[in-house]
Structures are given as structure tokens and as C-alpha cells.
């Protein structure tokens, strides 16, 4: 199964971000060569921010047909967009406020609602956009925490087992906060799943997620990475430090 995956490793974060930016632009163009909308689901956290900045730069911003991109998020914190902790807020400030993407193409999870309301609201948003079939994102970016979480699928949380809903609120005890997250099923339905992972602190958990025992309660990223879907990884050398990429 590991052989399903594609690993691209770079010397550092900036090099990884440059490669991920090229991939973003090329993949969206390839999708738009086949149809007139490209749906992209973004992760939060810090890793994708370099890519956001590059996409907004003069080098790249004119290489994307922003009018045909439709932007979603894999998870959100229960904060207003003005907060620096807001995944969609940060993406707006670093990228979408700086490029000609119609505001109606951007579907943020409403962190200002209660988590349960935000989850229900986002499920309706997805139903409306994708119509009468299950949501299938053309491109889904994910990160991974050093505890093996992805999106807000955190270890030992109920959302790991969620099979009825596409979006759910999830109380994260270690953070003492409730987040809103896509559930494993909808993430795994994406046409292309891409992990951006950087930093030596991710090396051990990435190796365990890929090669260790299947234990998604402890390592929720395995729900995606060991699902049978083909995954593309963009890694820096720190995160790849415990991988023998000759055997994956
Ligand atoms: C979030 C993310 C989360 C993130 C990982 C990695 O809301 O924080 O969606 O899943 O991708 O925690 O975060 P870093 O990129 O900051 O290491």
C-alpha cells in the first residue's frame, strides 16, 4: 500500500513550499483543462503559509485562473476570521485577499458560530456546492501534527469513527478547545490528497504512521494515509529523516 504513495523530499521548508506551489498551479490547470471548476480543500496550521505567500507573489498569482477555483477548508478552530488562529482568516490575509478570486468562491467554516452550528452549516455548504452527490474535492491539502493528527482528527477523539456526517465538531482535550473538521470519509473521497509535512519533530510519527502498526485511534493520519488512496507527500529533509524512501 505504501508503494501507492509519491514522496517528494526537499532540503528545507522554502524548497518544499516552492515545489508544492508548482504542484498546486499545475494540478489546478490540469483539472481546469478537463472541467470548468476546480475545488481545493486547504489545511490550516503553519506549514502551508509559505505556499500561500508564493501563490500570492508576482511570480505565481497570474498563473492561476482564480475565477474557476473554489476553496474549502479541512478544519477550523472556533475563532472568528480576524483571529491569527483562524485557518481561513490566515489564508485570506496571506493569499485570497491578494488575488482576483471571487469572494463567492471561498467557503470558510464559520468559526464564529458554535462548533455544532458551524459543522451543520458547513455540511449544508458542501451539499449546496456539490449538489446531489457526495463531495469529491479535486485537490485536498493536509498537514500532520507531531501526534499523528490530520485536519482535526486528533488521537482518541470520537470523530475518528464518524461515518454519518461529513463535518463534525470535535472536542480536543489536549488543546482544551472544540474544533470543526471534515470527517475521514469525505477527506478520503478527494481525487488528489497531498500532505505537506515539515520539521524534524514530525519524522518519528510520520515513519510510524507509514510503517507502524495500524492504530488510527492513536495515529488518525493513518485513516487517510493507510486508506488505500494514493497520497502525494511534500516533505522537508527533517520530516523525512526516519524514512527509507527506497522501500516506500
Ligand atoms: C490545523 C490543521 C492541522 C495542521 C497540523 C500541522 O488546523 O492546525 O489543519 O491539521 O495541518 O496541526 O500543523 P503545522 O503545519 O503547523 O505543523
Protein topology:
Blueprint: E1 6-10, H1 13-32, E2 38-42, H2 49-56, E3 69-73, E4 75-77, H3 87-96, H4 115-130, E5 139-142, E6 167-172, E7 177-182, H5 184-188, E8 193-197, H6 203-211, H7 222-225, E9 231-236
Parallel strand pairs: 1-9, 2-3, 2-5, 5-8, 8-9
Antiparallel strand pairs: 4-7, 6-7
Helix pairs in contact: 1-2, 2-3
Multimeric organization = single chain
Give start-end ranges of low-pLDDT stretches.
Answer: none
- H and E string: EHEHEEHHEEEHEHHE
If you average the pLDDT, what whole number results? 96
Rg calculated over all Cα atoms: 17 Å
The total beta strand count reads 9
Structural class: alpha/beta
Spell out which ligands are present: 6-phosphogluconic acid
Count of spatially separate domains? 1
Q: From the 3D coordinates, which CATH architecture would you assign? A: 3-Layer(aba) Sandwich
Mind describing the biggest β-sheet? 6 strands, parallel
How many helices? The count is 7
By CATH, the topology is: Rossmann fold
Strand order across the biggest sheet?
1-9-8-5-2-3
Large-scale geometry: globular
Gap from first CA to last CA: 9 Å
* Estimated share of beta-strand residues: 15-25%
Task: Indicate the CATH class.
Answer: Alpha Beta
Q: Give the proportion of residues in helices.
A: 25-40%
Question: How would you portray this structure in words?
Answer:
This protein has 248 residues and is α/β, with parallel strands linked by helices. The chain has a single domain (2-236), classed as Rossmann fold, CATH 3.40.50.1360. It contains seven helices and nine strands; from the N terminus they run βαβαββααβββαβααβ. The strands form two sheets. A six-stranded parallel β-sheet has the order 1-9-8-5-2-3, with helices on one face. Strands 4-7-6 form a three-stranded antiparallel β-sheet. β2 (38-42), α2 and β3 form a beta-alpha-beta unit. The radius of gyration is 17 Å and the shape is globular. The termini are close together. The model has no long low-confidence stretch (mean pLDDT 96). Bound molecules: 6-phosphogluconic acid. Residues 43-47, 74-75, 87, 143-145, 149-151 line the site of 6-phosphogluconic acid (6PG).
